[in-house]
C-alpha cells in the first residue's frame, strides 16, 4: 500500500465513522434499505470530495519537490562541469611546467657542456703556447688556406650571431669570445667584439660588456661598430648612475662621429641630463 492510499484511508476514516453514527441500524427491512442507500450516497459523495481535495494538495507538493529536484540536478551538473574545467586547467599547467623543466634541464646541460668545452680549449691553448714560442720560421699561408680560414670565420661568426638573436646569450657569448681568439685579424672581429658585449650585457655582466666595448673604442674610429660601442658604453654608465663618465663618452662620440645617428642620440642624452640638472 502506497503513501497516497494510506493518506486517503486515514482522511476518510473519521468521515465514515460519522456517517455510521448519523444513520443507526433500523429493524424494519424497507426503511433500513432506504437508509442504507442514503448513507451510501452520502459516503460516496464525501469520498469524492476527499479524493478531489487531497490529491490536489499532494500534486502541489509533488510539483514543488520535482522543481526543487530539477534545481538540485542543475546545480550538481554545473559543479561537475566546473570540477572538470579545473582539472583540465591543472592538467595544462602541469604540462607547461614539465616543458619549462625540460627546457631548464636542456640549458643546464648546455652550460655544463660549454664549461667542459671551455676547459678543454684552455688546456689545448696551454699545450700549444710553448710550441708557438719554440717556432722560428713563420708558416707560409697560401691563398686557398686564407679562403678556408675566412669561410671558417664566417661560419663561426654567424653561428654565434644566430644564437644571440634566438636568446641563447651564454652560447652566443662563448662563441663570440672563441671567434675573437681564433680569428683576431678577421674583418668580422669588430662586429664580433660588439655582439660579444651585447651578449654579456644581456646576461647582466655589465663590467665585462664594457671591457668588450672598450676593445672597439680603443681602435681607430673607422673600426666597425666604433660609434655603437661608444653609445652602448654611455648607456651602461647611465644605468650605473655614473653621469660624468656617460657625458664624457657621449662627447667623444660626437667629436669622432659627428654625423652619425649615434651622435644624434648622444646629443639628446646630454641635453636631457642638462635639463634635469
Overall 3D form: elongated
* Main sheet makeup: none
Give the terminus-to-terminus CA distance.
100 Å
Radius of gyration: 49 Å
Residues in helix, %: over 70%
Average pLDDT, all residues: 78
Q: What is the count of β-strands?
A: 0
Poorly predicted spans = 19-27
Class from helix and strand fractions? mainly alpha
Provide the succession of SSEs.
HHHHHHHHH
Number of helices: 9
How much of the residues is beta strand, in percent?
under 5%
Can you offer a commentary on this structure?
This protein is mostly helical and 277 residues long. Among the domains are: 68-104; 148-207, no CATH class; 225-277, no CATH class. The protein contains nine helices and no strands. Helix 4 (169-182) runs antiparallel to helix 5 (189-202). The N and C termini lie far apart (100 Å). The model is unreliable at 19-27 (pLDDT under 50).
Topology:
Elements: H1 3-22, H2 29-134, H3 143-165, H4 169-182, H5 189-202, H6 206-217, H7 226-239, H8 243-256, H9 261-276
Helix pairs in contact: 1-2, 3-4, 4-5, 5-6, 6-7, 7-8, 7-9, 8-9
